[in-house]
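Possible regression after last week's pipeline update?

I re-ran a chain I had predicted before the update to compare outputs. Posting the input and the new output here so someone can diff against the archived version. Not blocking, just want to make sure nothing changed silently.
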Amino acid sequence: MQKLNLVTVVGHNTTLLPHMLKHYQDIVDEVYVVVYRQDTLDGILEEVVNLGITPYKVVTEPKFNWERVTELYNEVKQTKPDEWWVVSDDDEFHIYPKPIREMIGECEENGWEFITGGFLDRIGERGEFPLVTKETNIWESFPLAGFFRYPMSGAMPNKCCVMKGSVDVTPGQHFAKIGDTDTWRERGWNHPKRYPIERGFVQVHHFKWDSTVLERLKEVSETKEDYTYWKEYRKMYRGIQLNDWKIDVDNPEFRLQKMIRKNYSEYSEWKELTQVIINI
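New output (post-update):
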């Protein structure tokens, strides 16, 4: 079995980074952390180093340039194009339908080069945004899993999760790009190099919604720069504001369920939600 690497790009805050790295520590062989500073004095590099992490690369770029973030993911992966990579932001925790190395073995046998999934948004029990510290059990602090970001803001919920290093991802890491072909737009879910969805679709548990998120949503929404996708952030911020600064846990469109065991089958609507996600 080939080596499995993880790459993540960290910027703005490190609240979830230690929890995310712990989640993947028994899954991957090597971790590559890229530090994305928004200026040389923002403190993010010091925060990462204080966590005992040696960054693979440090860059200083404009705030919230998600297109540049994607370029960094691709740049790191291309250093080992024949190895397999998990691509994950520091607030994204993959739950696989079967052991990931088993899925990669299937890929090797069948010529598949990337594995996809979709977001499951995580939130506090009453729709609140929990405080996260190093001691937090995030699965217990964010017991509700569902699908509220897309209905509230229109943000794309598809994710390209695991791939050969030679396979680039599109902005936001939503789709694979092989050569000049955007695999989603060209062939949709039936692309010949994609791990078949009917065999498994990765759950990307999204812990973005902690106590720091409202400030970040507001800040991004005020940038008015296309590369920040600020309009999506503005819609999200306003929707939360209109619901008394919480997520409406009683909205059936959000499909919220309790899920604290990190068990793929625990979320009962995943099969139906998969069909929703892949048709967006």
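Follow-up from reviewer: compared with the archived run. The radius of gyration is 18 Å. Marking as no regression found.
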